[in-house]
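Anyone opening a protein record will find just a pair of labelled lines. With that in mind, the following record should read easily:
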Amino acid sequence: MSLDNHSALIEQLKPLLMEPDFQDIFEQLTVDESNSTRFLLKMELNRISSQCTRIIDLRDKTELPCEEVVIANQRHFLDEPAKESLINALPLYRNKYTLGVYEQVVKAHKLRRLKLRNIEPEEIVSEENPYLVPAVVLGSYFNRCEERMNYSIRIAVTQPGIPEANGVTLDLSVGGARIKLPLKHHLDQDKPIKLKLLELSEEFFVDDLQHGVDYQIVDIQNKDGNAILRLKRLGGGETLDKVISKVIRSFKFRYKVDVNDVIVTATGLGYERQYLPLLTHLPLYISVKDDIPHIAYELLGRGNQPIQHYFQDENEISQLPNFLNNRRLTQILKSDNDIDHCLLFSFTHHAQGKLHFYSASLAELKVTKNLHLFLGFASTKASWRVFKIVAQTIDHSKNYKTSTLPGDDARYSALTEQQLAQFSHTLQLIDLTNENARKDYQGWFNKADVNGLKIFAQAKVKKHSIKKVSMPFSERRNEARFAFKTLVTIQQGDKKATGVTHDISSRGLQLILEESVEFTEPAQVMLSFPRLQAASGKANLTHLPYQLIRSRMNGQTLHLSALIGHTPHDGVEFLNKLIAHNKQKLEQLSDNEGQLKELADGLKNLFMRQLPGVPYFIEKTVKSAQMAYIGIGTTTDEISHLFAQDSDQVLQYNLRPLLDNNVLKQQIIDPIKSMKPSHDMDFFEVFIQLTRQARGSVQIKCVLKSELGGKDNQIQFIQQSKKVGRFMALRVYRGATDKPDMSYIRRELEYIHIHANHRAKQLEEQLWKVIGSGELLDITAEVEMRYPSLLTVDNPK
């Protein structure tokens, strides 16, 4: 989406940016714009009014003498024309040096230089940048409460003391209109006008139509020898509302309805459906009772299963409530995402058939002076994990539902609305563990007595307390899954292994092996159920054919589906009976019948409002593949903001520093092509050096962690980055996507097909091109924790 056609409106709003009543003025001037356009206008205005730290130094870029100009303790070196541009630009922003001022001065300087060389600006051909990537807005679902139709009818406009002007409507809604009049209309913009909708008054006998309806002029723009007026309706009652609504309904199949909001929302929903099945983070929902926060719900998806499974004890009871206990939750919510409270470490210990969990936040380790002991010892354990928490306060003034079509009910059922209203915060639990960094953490170990870690032992949770809801699209099976444990032996050729089921359905199961075995996948295996055989009667539960669909966790977790031929499958029949007879006792892990789909959709909408990272989407091209979009939320995030500095267009980002030197092909596109949608996302890490240059821009130097070599080189890079500016580390996830979930945006596509068939086809083609998705995630704080020497320097004893 572009704001090219709204440059006049942006210029009109600039002088009003710093006014205290700007919000009211903005609402008036954009009353007839679509919600999506208003969102983009706000983003652009926020961008140009943000404080700027870039220095303008023209000493080696102009033929004229330069003088020093100081603004807010920043020294600029400008020639006379640039200084004049600066003086003209500053009052627009209340004499504050903003990004808009910087861009206006630099643009004026470039245009002057081009004219000196007799080069027209239109003739400049910039080198095509394949890393200039547009953004798609995720988590913001625009809903227009009334339809606006591109509808042309004859009109007459009057104002006291001014001759009647004739024209036509360009579009019409119940509350407003856009009309075209001759340039010399002589209307006073500050006074109401009376508008006669001539063709409607001939067909409908309503007093308001016969005598004219009062409208307020919101904006006048001159275009192609005509005056284009945007109007807000002031007069007329319910009868007129009904007439205009009836006209729009009657003619919507003959005239063009404005569908921009629906397209923007459908695009966001379509792309989020590619990203969410791969999502590795676990969304949690916090309720507060008697001032004590606790986890009420978790939202399950295919990609976040490893986190769910990690916290299951020997009785399949989640120990997550005591990992994020009341004390830790209080600190996280109070600290505004302070990394000391939001970075947590964990490991488990097997003893006498029981699984014990140990965990600590960075703040707790610092206070108890157990940093060296915990990180050093815990990182030697196979169960070692590093987690990051991202918390977000829920704004209950926003709708929970994605009501995207005009006339849609903007709310869910009363019960779902009540359930969603009880949550105060969403948390994203993110697993930052990197097996390659394990040895770095082991450098912390000071060989102290490990009994000192007893204070970090979690109390055992005895019963289920967190309610589980599955994302509707995350359920790959055609039937419900139930938590159930029984012994299973698996054989493929001469390879054999023993494991325990994690969950079952009649036609499939998930198996956790005692030891990792490299089975061929996808391929057939034979399963036996020794403990169930005793209760199976005549059914033979040995050497049953199953398909190994995929493995995870280094081959320790297997997903299997029954291979059903022409004869009945004994395993399927037995498990079907087992589930049917014990349905009340078994814990259902998935929502097969859709009774929780509405709640799941609302929970998804809540956490999509603010993304912890920046998703991206890879699409196939004729020759290979390219990065098609990045996903941004409704609030500014540091990562996308970093890559916006070399792009002067709204919602466009220059990812050259990150993706150049063949990184896009070798590290993202090629791996994604070799992956399958059933595979978990993997990742690589990038170290970034941010250097503020003399003229205010930030130089971004990105290096793959794998290219830096050993630990000493990595530490040296971090220290050097901090000396010259700032260090940052990104984790870049990558995964293959499945075919697009068109059913989720079926209603939106049908609506767009009716009113703009070519745009619906364009959106469908876009989504079918997507072959991969991933995410850019800031892991700076965790990376710095890997090197004891860095923390020692930063925090001297």
Remarks:
- The chain has a mean pLDDT of 82.
